[in-house]
Write a structure and sequence with these properties.
By secondary structure, the protein is of the alpha/beta class. Helices cover about 45% and strands about 10% of the residues. Helix 4 packs parallel to helix 5 and helix 4 packs across helix 9. The radius of gyration is 22 Å and the shape is globular. Bound molecules: pyridoxal-5'-phosphate (PLP). The site of pyridoxal-5'-phosphate has 13 residues, from helix 4.
Length: about 400
């Protein structure tokens, strides 16, 4: 074997796989309705783009400190102070290439061989893969649609063993759009403090919460566990900046210094122009965030209704992020597919609708549909989905009748 042993443990990203196949079809001229992508369809706000133009004009195109320029780390601190009433210092922040690298640095800095990391499913596939890349073992706590994929503190804590190094919570979650309650996080943080565990909060979708529910996770973590809590987040989803690659990790200064050492020998600073743009996003007007959230809410409500017009499809209304995660076991049975993987492949090949099968999220029987696309395309996509199910159900019924 010519490749390193660690590569045997990880699987390619299923979400990127769907996007690649949808792209391939599109390049052949096929009209694909892409409900697979995990990124806003909105353009980056104008004032953010203007800041990038200005950075270019000012030749702000050199290396920066690997942790990110001070002005940006200050803007991140200011954002959390304004949003959550929590004071962080710039030395408690590192700017990373998206939320993904914030989580990756965290995994590499904290986890060793033999460590266990407790997290919840359905999960964003990168989370357990990064844990494995660090040589540690992900321990998965299942959540269920019956109670809205709620993340229960007792279930998380029941999975803790003497090998546990950290608990990783993603809220709002991808793909289920679930939120952890403040009370549940407080219980987890208390117990983590008592047992010497780290708590990592992936808040990548923190700006995309539909109802005004209390979700001040940074305050809880800093009050209860300041020396062992890490917040990972990003400009990607909130400000429609997925391609710019700007995320951050916030944690104890010593932890951030370790992340900085790691990043300094791997990717160094993120793009200098992006850093100026991110300052404009974080420190500038936030009305584009509200506009996008309102539009996502409208789409969520519309698509939930269209989808569940077929009584065999059930779907928890997500409380955050921009994905629906319908349960389609009855549809699989009626259409003769053995898995949502097979179902999603045929849906893309025959009806040209891209969704992501649940298997990749540790949730067979479900698929993920992103509503970060226009309402017209969402309508077209759900219409094609229903027609596909009807066609395949009729074929399966026909085959069964012929056999009997
Ligand atoms: C739960 C979750 N965390 C983190 C990320 C990382 O996003 P990015 O690296 O694009 O900022 C994503 C992206 O899809 C996500 O879904």
């Amino acid at each position: 074997m010519i490749f390193a042993a660690r590569m045997r443990q990880i699987a390619p990203s299923p979400t990127l796989k769907v996007t690649a196949e949808a792209d391939r079809l599109r390049r052949q001229g096929v009209d694909v309705v892409d409900l697979g992508a995990g990124e806003p369809d909105f353009p980056t706000p104008e004032h953010v783009k203007n800041a990038a133009h200005a950075a270019l004009d000012q030749n702000f195109t050199k290396y920066t400190p690997s942790a990110g320029i001070l002005e940006l780390r200050q803007a991140i601190c200011q954002r959390y102070d304004t949003d959550y009433g929590v004071a962080f210092k710039p030395e408690e922040v590192i700017v990373t290439a998206g939320g993904k690298q914030a989580l990756y640095n965290t995994a590499m800095v904290l986890f060793d061989h033999g460590d266990e990391v407790v997290t919840h499913a359905p999960y964003w596939p990168t989370i357990p893969e990064q844990v494995k890349l660090a040589g540690a073992t992900p321990v998965i706590v299942q959540t269920s649609p019956e109670d809205g994929f709620a993340i229960h503190a007792d279930a998380i804590l029941a999975a803790v063993t003497p090998r546990t190094k950290a608990i990783l919570i993603n809220s709002p979650s991808n793909p289920a759009g679930a939120l952890i309650s403040e009370a549940a996080l407080a219980t987890i943080a208390d117990e983590a403090a008592r047992r010497g565990l780290w708590v990592i909060a992936d808040l990548t979708y923190e700006k995309l919460i539909y109802d005004p529910v209390p979700h001040n996770l940074p305050r809880i973590l800093t009050e209860k566990l300041r020396d062992r809590a890490v917040i990972c987040s990003a400009a990607s989803k909130a400000y429609a900046m997925t391609g710019w690659r700007c995320g951050w990790a916030i944690g104890p200064a010593q932890f951030i210094a370790q992340c900085n050492a790691l990043q300094g020998h791997s990717t160094s600073n993120i793009n200098s122009i992006t850093q100026k743009a991110a300052i404009a996003a974080l420190a500038g007007p936030q009305d584009s965030v509200t506009m996008m959230l309102n539009e996502y809410r409208r789409r969520r409500d519309a698509v939930s209704e269209w989808l569940t017009a077929d009584p065999r499809i059930t779907c928890v209304k997500p409380r955050g992020a921009f994905y629906l995660f319908p349960y389609v076991a009855d549809v699989l049975e009626a259409t003769g597919f053995r898995s949502t993987n097979e179902f999603a492949e045929a849906l893309l090949a025959e009806a040209h609708v891209a969704v992501t099968a649940g298997e990749g999220f540790d949730a067979p029987g479900f698929f993920r549909l992103s509503y970060a696309t226009s309402i017209e395309r969402l309508k077209e996509g759900t219409d094609r989905l229903h027609a596909f199910i009807a066609r395949r159900s009729a074929q399966t019924r026909g085959a069964a009748t012929a056999r009997s």
